[in-house]
Each structure stands twice: as C-alpha cells, then as structure tokens.
Design a protein that fits this description.
Strand order of the largest sheet: 2-1-4-3
Helix content: 55-70%
Radius of gyration: 37 Å
Structural class: alpha+beta
Order of helices and strands: HHHHHEHHEEEHHHH
C-alpha cells in the first residue's frame, strides 16, 4: 500500500503541471516548493537600484560621454594628492624628520575645486603625509611665520616648525654636523694644497677631491644658516 501511494503522489505532482488547480489535496505538497521561487523573486527589489539608469536608455550616450571628464577629474585628484605627498616628504627628509613625527598640515589654495579635492581625500592625505591634522583654507590665516612650506602647482602645504623639530635637539645635531664638516674641509683643503699630491695624483683623483671640497663647503653654508635661524 505504501508503494502504491508513493507512485500516485509522484504522478499527481507531474499531473498538477497539466491540471488547472482542480485537485486541492495536492496543493499542500506543492506549496513549499512554490513558495521558494516567490521568495527569490521578492529579493529582486534590492537589485532594482540601477533600474532608473536602465530606463534612461536615451541617456546612455550622455553617460558614456560624461565618463571621460569624470575619469580626468579622478586622475587629476590622484595626481594632485601624489604631488602634495611627495612635496611634504621631500621637505621632511631634508629636515631629517622621521615618519613617526606627526604634524599639523595646512593646505592653502585659492581654488575652491582644489580645496574640495583635498577635503574629500583628507584621510588618505593625512596618512601618507604624516599628518595628525589637515586644515584646508584659502589663505594663510592662523599659520605661524616660521612654518615650513611644501609647494605644489595648485596648493601650498604649511607645517608648524615646532611640530616637526625639537629645536634644542636640532641645534645640537647641527653643531655636531658643523664640527664634522670642519674636519672634512680641513682635510680636503690640506690635500689639495699639497704639491706632492697635486703632482703625483691622477687627474681623476684631484677632480674627485675638488668636487668633495665644493660639496663640503655648500653643506657647511646650509648648516650654518640653519643654526643661525634656530638660534634667533
């Protein structure tokens, strides 16, 4: 009896597809299966978000033409951020400021679009520019006179000097550098003023030593100017 019932039931399921809902007894066994597709169909409203765009088929061409300027704006923004980050890092490196030393960065630009780009990319810019705070403005209001600047084509970044450098430690470091350079200058000048060295040394060696002397002199000038500015 059980086998006969199972066979009839399978037949009824197949027959329901052909019948027009006349056998109501079969409906309970079909309802669970028929509910699932309905539930799947109800998920579709979430995908209906792009529907307005699809309906605007005539605007497809307009959208396609708009992609080019949008991409250009995005590329311009990315390049602007890269340029600003490079400028800040170059200044920090020249001052021997470690990445762990964070500072406030003022972004100054008269161009509202430029300020908007920096505003939208604050987090990205702060992370790569080693900043603990980004302040975007159209002028230098509130920026200290001794602030260090990093200049790009469309904006200038300012960083308070005191936040980048411990003045006392920087003076100590520069004074050590000055003494080291004094020794190098003395050695180089002594070598180049030695007639035996000049007469016997290859021309390449002499030229190399002269280049070193010029480098030491230029560095010494920078160090002394830096010290003078810090000791004011």
């Amino acid at each position: 009896m059980n086998n006969d019932f199972d066979e009839d039931e399978t037949v009824d399921i197949g027959a329901d597809v052909k019948k027009s809902h006349t056998e109501t007894n079969v409906e309970p066994s079909i309802e669970p299966e028929s509910i699932e597709p309905v539930e799947e169909a109800e998920v579709e409203p979430e995908v209906k978000i792009p529907a307005p765009t699809v309906k605007k088929t005539p605007a497809k061409k307009t959208t396609a033409t708009k992609k080019t300027p949008v991409k250009k704006v995005e590329e311009e923004a990315v390049e602007m951020m890269k340029e600003a980050v490079r400028a800040i890092r170059t200044v920090r490196t020249s001052m021997n400021v470690p990445p762990s030393k964070k500072a406030t960065v003022y972004v100054v630009s008269e161009d509202a679009k430029v300020r908007e780009i920096f505003e939208h990319n604050k987090i990205f810019f702060a992370t790569l520019g080693y900043a603990n705070e980004i302040l975007i403005q159209s002028d230098k209001a509130g920026i200290a006179e001794d602030a260090v600047s990093a200049v790009t084509a469309r904006a200038t970044m300012y960083m308070p000097f005191a936040e980048l450098v411990d003045v006392a430690k920087e003076i100590e470091r520069l004074e050590k550098e000055e003494k080291k350079l004094e020794g190098e200058l003395k050695r180089s000048n002594s070598m180049l003023s030695n007639e035996r060295f000049i007469s016997k040394a290859p021309a390449e060696k002499i030229a190399e030593e002269k280049a070193k002397l010029e480098k030491y002199e230029a560095t010494m000038k920078q160090v002394q100017e830096r010290l003078a500015a810090l000791k004011k």
